[in-house]
Every structure is written in C-alpha cells, then in structure tokens.
Protein: DNA-binding response regulator
Amino acid sequence: MLDDVTDNQREPVKVFLVDDHALFRAGVRTELDSITDEVRVVGEAGSVAEAVAGIARTKPQVVLLDVHMPDGGGAEVLRRIRPELPDVVFLALSVSDAAEDVIAVIRAGARGYVTKTISSKELVRAVVRVADGDAVFSPRLAGFVLDAFADRPGSAPINDPELDLLTPRERDVLRLLARGYAYKEIASELFISVKTVETHVSSVLRKTQLSNRYELSRWASDRRLV
Structure:
C-alpha cells in the first residue's frame, strides 16, 4: 500500500522530444500528454542544434532521441550534452533497428533503444524505467548490445579502432553505399548533396585505406554495418 501511495504522489518525469519530423513529434506529444500523468513533455526539437539548446534550457530527466537527423544524429546530441548535463538520461526512439545504429547510440551514452513500433503505453513505461535507472530495449535489440560487449567471433565489436575513425555521417553514407545505393539515392536519403556524398566516400576510402566501393562494402559487411 505504501508503494502505491508513493507511486501516485510521484512527480511526472520531464521529457524532451528530439526528432526531425514535426508531425511525429506532435503525435508523440499528444499521446504522452493524453494517456498518462507519469510523464510531462517539456520541450521538443527537430535538429541537433535545437536539441542541444532546448535540453540545456529545460533540463529534462529523459530525452527521447531520434537516431538519424539531417544535421547529425542522436549520437552527436549525446556527445554535446552529456559532458554538461550528465544526469540527463537518453532513450533512443527510432525507426531503425540496425545493429550499427543501436550500438553507436549506446556507445555514445544512451540508456536504451526502442523502435517507433512501440505502443504509447509501452513508451511511457520505457521512459519511467530509464528515469529510474533501468536499461530498456525493444525485443531483439538488446542482443546487439550483448554481442558487442561479449567480444565473440562474429559479434559487432564495441571498440573498433578503424570504425572509430569514421564520423557518424560517414558511417551513414557507408551503410547505404554497402547496401547498393547510388550516390544520388544516398544524397536523397540523408538530405545532403551528391557532392557531399562523394566527399564522405573519399574520406572513408582514405581512412580505411581501401580503393573502391566493393572493398568498402565487404569491409562494412565484416563489421555488420549492413
């Protein structure tokens, strides 16, 4: 009974939304505000720069963080915020369930990773749990992280010196390149110019000391980036 009283008297968890799609943010905000008093949305942002400024201003307990955005990604927000606000907890909320995305954002400091197929009630529970110190993952995604830390043959390494040389955007370009996307398609997918794609590919080739996209595809496949 005492636990029930304590839960009912608990202050709502302050949440900040980061996603580059305004309609998605509006939908999440409406859902969270309408179904529960356990969380309260205190702000939102559609870019890395807006997120950094908004989080610093509102000081939420939990940030729901998109993984891919045109001007960077969730990992970049984490890198810029965590040194200044180490108590803020980040929960990735993404359409992607790719192993490299999960591992990259967890390495950057997120406390969990759920996909956008999650129900509103499940999302509320996930937010409350990470605010309380738990780690939360959608089904099967936890396996990527366990594999990464297990250091087993065939697992995605949590520390890969060669992979660490690449910026988040270079990894995005490399992943799409390895999946067979043309430069124009990569540019459209990432909201950048074809020339910028070419620049990123050249940089990846230089850093990996490889000579063509076919070698890059094999390199990416070996690291489970595809």
